Amino acid sequence: IARKRNYPKGSVLSGTEIWKVTKDALLGLMTCIIIVGGVIFGWFTATESAAVAVVYAFIITFFVYREIPLRQFGNILRKSLRTIAMVMALIATASMFGWLLAYLKIPAMVTTALLGISTNKIVILLLINVMCLILGCIMDMGPLILILTPILLPIVQAIGMNPIQFGVIMVVNLAIGFVTPPIGVNLFVASSLTEVPVMQIAKKAMPMIGFFLVALLLITFIPAISIGIL
Predict the structure, then answer these.
(1) pLDDT value of position 174
(2) Rounded alpha-carbon distances, angstroms, from residue 49 to 15, 83, 135
């Protein structure tokens, strides 16, 4: 795709240049280690890890790398606020929509209809994936996990699926919804940062979504991918 669209490419780096770039990036990469490692080792929650990482990134950016002058901090905050406001508005409306669906018992109705179609394990898993993909396109991940897990978990356990594998399948399904319209949160974030229309970004993301779906099928029908390390 990059070759077909003639995306710009960088020059090949020598061994010395690779080491220099890696060394310069180590402090920045520590941000990821703080977020993931802090949660894994139980030092703080996911939300707290994000706050700690932001403070760390602020110190490294302005006082170590010094690539951005401190006077730009106000402008950065304004741009961040605009992006956060858009995302929070989407999450708020998606949460309200999720509450409405739960109140009307739509997920339970869909699940009943799903089981009425077939008792075959493969067919049920495919139908669950289709349902999660469709709902992931129109609802936020948080409400969907709260709504669907109590409904679908007994079903997958009845057909012999490990709950951990089911959790991975659901998260991957709903994560795909982050990049699919009409309520793809990541699409709106990318649009606000790049000022490119949402549907234009969604159109260009379609080939990547195809690869996501292939990965989803592998995770669904090859349990070792999810639970092989247990």
Answers:
(1) 85
(2) 34, 20, 29
pLDDT > 70? residue 66: yes
Compute the distance between CA of residue 140 and CA of residue 185 in angstroms, rounded to an integer: 8
Neighbours of 96 (CB within 10 A): 12
Residue 34 token pair: 């703080």
> In this structure, are residues 136 and 144 in contact, taking their beta carbons and an 8 Å threshold?
yes
203: exposed, middle or buried (C-beta count within 10 Å: 0-12, 13-18, 19+)? exposed
Rounded to a whole number, what is the distance in angstroms from the first to the last CA of the chain? 37
- Of 114, 136, 138, 116, the C-alpha closest to 125 is 114
What does the pLDDT average to over 10-16? 85
* Cis-peptide into 182, omega within 30 deg: yes
CB 171 within 8 A of CB 131: no
**Overall average pLDDT of the 213-223 stretch:** 91
Closest CA to 51 of 67, 34, 64, 37: 34
Token code pair at residue 73:
């901090």
pLDDT band at 109 (very low <50, low <70, confident <90, very high): confident
Distances, alpha carbon 214 to alpha carbons 63, 129, 136, 211, 219, in Å: 44, 12, 17, 5, 9
Is residue 25 over pLDDT 70? yes
Segment 89-116 shows an average pLDDT of 74
pTM, to two decimals: 0.60
Q: Tokens standing for 189?
A: 């974030």
Dump the DSSP string for 148-192: HHHHHHHHHHHTT--HHHHHHHHHHHHHHGGGSSSS-HHHHHHHH
